[in-house]
Amino acid sequence: MTAVEHGDAIAHRPTTSRAVVVEGLTKVYAGRTVVDGVSFSVEQGEIFAILGPNGAGKTTTVESIAGLRTPDTGVVRVFGHDPLADRATVRQLLGVQLQESSFQDKLTVREIVDTYRGLYPDPLSTDELLERLGLGPSAGTRYAKLSGGQQQRVSIAVALVGRPRAVILDELTTGLDPQSRRDTWTLVEELRDTGVTVVLVTHVMEEAERLADRLALIDRGRVVALDTPEGLVAGAGLEQQLRFSTTASLDEDWIRRLPEVSGVARDHDEFIVTGDERMLFSVVSLLAAHDIVPGRLQVDQPTLDDAFVALAGRTLHAADDNTPEVAR
Length: 328
Fold this sequence. Notes:
- The protein is of the alpha/beta class.
- The two termini are about 30 Å apart.
- Helix content is about 30%, strand content about 25%.
- It contains 12 helices and 13 strands.
């Protein structure tokens, strides 16, 4: 499967380095602020992930970018255009695949794409697009008969058919089996490689770590971190952990005295050592100096999930039970 070619995917040359700018975005529902002063920008040609738990306000944020919701306060620009005042222009520049996207069950894949193709002045060829998305053999299949992964690809086809310079992909892999999820991740990477800017909305840590060039971590409607995945983890000041086993005589104090080590725990013949990024080399060097060969050596690096807990004080998947559905 190949992604849309660079010349096919982008209708015009970029005139600014920023595809999306959001400044001070606020949205209130029923007296409750569900998006609270959100600010970030998305550079052209990158995958930018908006990451957070269910109910954090992610979908409300991207729907405001797409011009589907009116912010109470704040500024949103898509390639310099107001998505509300310049709705027709933004529709040509921005493709959108939302979490709740669905199509009429009895329509075939080709009929769905042809319908949306008619909305654009210079759309991609339906057959060519379907082939590039791996949907060619299913072009005549009714939507209801498609697998979950195929239905997601139809949503992507609809988002791409107008030759957008950027796309919003909202919870793209929810409900997919592991293989379909990884195939979809590869497609997203191919889109980025052709020059299409991707705004990816997700609550799946592995997805964000795999795909995102940069990300905004949103919790309870606010941006709590904005960085690369690696930078966010590093900035959280988390330590790594080393686990190993040995039946050799090993004094815990030998390890504890290493300056890179902050803690040592022992469970029978297993040692659990915590420390900074230099800890692994120091401990392994110490073991080698005492002719000790460790068994079951395992290094646990801090993850994006760990960073979220450190920054927001709770796990990513925990959302308030009374979060309004529209906040998503």
